[in-house]
């Protein structure tokens, strides 16, 4: 593992272990015995899990595995939205709250399952009027408002694929995604609240749509009362078309392998990958994992996943998993410090949240704000705490346990990816002992291994690449329109063994618990968001002053990794490597990709370290970015380059 990013070597020192309490174990949704059941009869185990759903027609075959192509629940038919909504109303739970929605400015909405059924049906009828049919692609760029959920479920109901694009992404990023999937409809809003202020949304989406002729209509939700440019005939207000529809809509069954959504994620090249998920297997695993990993009790638990629906966590753990399990969820629109740093704890107290699922970057931010903040609130309703998005350092894990969980909530560190669709590695609360910083073991029904470059399993104490050696129901079914990239990215590294290559480094401790060590490729993880180094490099070199750029992820106390860029400026610009020039570049990246991709630091250099084959040696740049002694430079084409960079930086150039 040459270029493996953060290697948390201190983890081998971590010996604390927290066994489940007897009280929790006595009422837990899963038991130890599930692990053996998952191993002994994997397909039988998943067939049992699929029974959590309503099938219009039962499957004939659990799994058809022609590596790397899997079909799950072959011959089965279901409607995903019916499973997430109508079914609960039909079973007498129409009055149960599906969402306690909390707007950033403090406005609220309570949405019951009966409300959800009517809103989703109306939206489905409106989409039909706008010409959306099964198999079409619909782009959604919305803030965290209920209409985002209605839109996703309306698509699912009609068998149309949604492609949700994070609200913070630039017009360019939206354009690329619409173009790749040839979306027909875009659903957006007039504006979005950002730290207490309305920011424009439609103005940006219009910029994208001007360059994407496949878009026939833009459906616009009014959220901030912002004035918007309007294109007659193309643009339609949500309240104009949706509100007048009937609240009745008959959901048609679709094949278990009918596509459900595309979600773009960064790869090692500049072009994002459209990860494709299908219906039956995806929903089965989303529901199963939400049930066992969070020990969710329908009608009792109050569940809050703080992710944005623009990320896979929002798809699987705000929308599909919880709704399939008839959860009562909190959905919050805004930032955690608006209007004050206790906003999350205030919400936990207000709704009596019992399951709270967030990301390490936010936990580290809470740590920075101080434990006095959560201390001011009554957090005694909390029972289970979750973490996702990046490795959680033991210090943050302990802080979370002590200051949020008051030492009595199991912490579930959940490892998974956009590609895996649902949680793969995590402890089971009430069953598995937890260790600060470890995702512990693969879930019942899931198989993972840590192997060497030669695909040899490493034993206890060993480290290597994380692979998934058996197919799983919510696995990606491909990269939209690019089968070759699908094979190359995930299935070529261990082609002989047929293993899925996750792109993460991992190790086993002496007890066999799994510790994730970060990405082994050129993908950075900034606050749990995957951003490719190449993507940021392309944005930088698209600026007229930049000749060349190299980007690395350097470890960052708060965001996990921070983006550090090394740029070579062009001729005249090179004389002006001052603050203004650097600010202009940071802003340029934010404009090209989105504010989350803004480099933390930009260093102006005269040369970049390259191998003889011209590959930039990011490992060395990472040494500089993290203030370390620069490592082995023998493979550099010109070994003096690093001296030049290091000395140039010391002189403050
Ligand atoms: C769900 C999600 C996936 C990448 C993954 C890994 C990192 C996610 C983690 C974790 C260590 C965890 N990652 N969860 N690393 N421990 N609990 O985040 O999906 O955005 O596709 O990112 O995130 O590196 O490969 P996605």
Describe the fold and architecture.
- The N terminus is likely disordered.
- Helix 5 crosses helix 6 and helix 10 packs across helix 11.
- The chain is α/β, with parallel strands linked by helices and 653 residues long.
- The two termini are 33 Å apart.
- The chain has 2 domains: 483 residues, 3-Layer(aba) Sandwich (Rossmann fold), CATH 3.40.50; 123 residues, GMP Synthetase, Chain A, domain 3 (2-Layer Sandwich).
- It is globular, with a radius of gyration of 24 Å.
- 31% of the residues lie in helices and 23% in strands.
- The protein has 20 helices and 30 strands.
- The strands form 8 sheets. The chain has an 8-stranded mixed beta sheet with strand order 12-11-8-6-7-14-15-23, with helices on both faces. A 7-stranded mixed beta sheet has the order 5-4-17-16-18-19-20, sandwiched between helices.
- The structure holds ligand 6R9.
- Ligand 6R9 binds next to helix 11, strand 20, strand 24 and strand 25.
